[in-house]
Write the structure tokens for this entry.
Amino acid sequence: MGGTEPAEARPEIDRRRLPPEERQQQIVDEAVRFFAEVGLDGKTRELARRLGVTQSLIFKYFETKQDLIEAVYGRVYLERISPDWPTLICDRSRPIGERMSIFYRDYGSRIFDHDWMRIFMFSGLAGAELNKRYLTHLSKTLLEPLLKEIRVAASSPSEPTLEDLWSLHGGIVYLGIRQHIYRMPTPEDPQHEIDRAIGRFLGSFDVEGP
Amino acid sequence: MGGTEPAEARPEIDRRRLPPEERQQQIVDEAVRFFAEVGLDGKTRELARRLGVTQSLIFKYFETKQDLIEAVYGRVYLERISPDWPTLICDRSRPIGERMSIFYRDYGSRIFDHDWMRIFMFSGLAGAELNKRYLTHLSKTLLEPLLKEIRVAASSPSEPTLEDLWSLHGGIVYLGIRQHIYRMPTPEDPQHEIDRAIGRFLGSFDVEGP
DNA sequence: CGCTTTAATGATCGATCGATGAACAAGATC
DNA sequence: GATCTTGTTCATCGATCGATCATTAAAGCG
């Protein structure tokens, strides 16, 4: 076998002298994967090794390591919440069960992500303010409107509370925690489990599920 | 005011030359609090400072930092699962709703703990094998028997699955995550929220809740 | 007290950390 | 191809890490 030239077989990026924006983006991309794997205490020399560049180059694009971490936060938090969700949640032309199913399917497709899940947990443990802001924003713009819609749809005398919704939410998020933080086996079809949880939740308030 | 001697006012331990077992235990105790706060990358010098001893003393009792971390694991995982729970779960003289309420009340009182919650998360992110063993043990000895009991009590044609139970469990655990990992405000009376979640869960299988 | 034991300290090692600045070289322009 | 710009490397700094070991001094005992 053989005959092909083994030279330059590395599929890695060995090109040098990239445009600054491109290089900066490349560093952040790799930093997301790197910090997600080893934590925010990961060493810049190891990150540079993965990038195939020298450690000092990183500090040409980010003054301090903390600046790089902030850039990682910005990248990873971006596009994690869709602007379409408030509209979807309040679309009363569709049954609430369907709305919740679609919402949590989209939500799950965005947050059941290895890098996001772990960096969110690392930054939460580190006391980053972004976590609190994210969760507060989630509660105000998504859970509270969702609660209102469920109450409107509910004919039951007992109404759900925001904490009830947090409980449902936690049960769903826990799927991602089991998978990406604890690395435990999880269901092949999480949407099925999510729909069952939504169904149980709505059913207990006499609302039809998805 | 005054008149009292300010000398030796330090309530801290400044006594030297403790019995080895006592000193070792003291180090582990403080290490639990310390690592829970700053993570497993916490520095031994900072830990020694909190203990009021020199850094080198720590290495008289633990050959390596990893040994100390293992001791912290052992301490913090100890007594976290009660041997009484399997008996309680299978005690059919009591309604299943009551059994679940009592179980999760006891369970919550043990795991809704700042140090446990954070060290469990830190070690999970670090890939410690103890997390997987803990969760597997939890599933085998508690959730699976609980599932069996619910199925026995359920008269509904649709039976709960183990994943359904994980969803309930996750919703409950998420209370502790919100409190101790994300440091967000949580309900004053978590037991009330837990009982509501149990009630919704059992209700969806036509079983009376707590 | 004088002696022994050993818990605890103080000094320090080699490795590694984040960060800096001079030297180098790839690529564009003429 | 000579020149200039600037992305990248190389060498290195001071600080700090986990870990080691000789020294010190507190407690137990005759």
In short: Residues 20-77 of chain B form a domain with the Arc Repressor Mutant, subunit A fold (CATH 1.10.10.60). Chain B has two domains: 20-77, 85-203. Chain B touches chain A at residues 39, 41, 118, 121-122, 124-127, 131-132, 135-136, 161, 163-164, 166-175, 177-178, 181-184, 187, 193, 196-197, 199-201, 203-204 (CB under 8 Å).
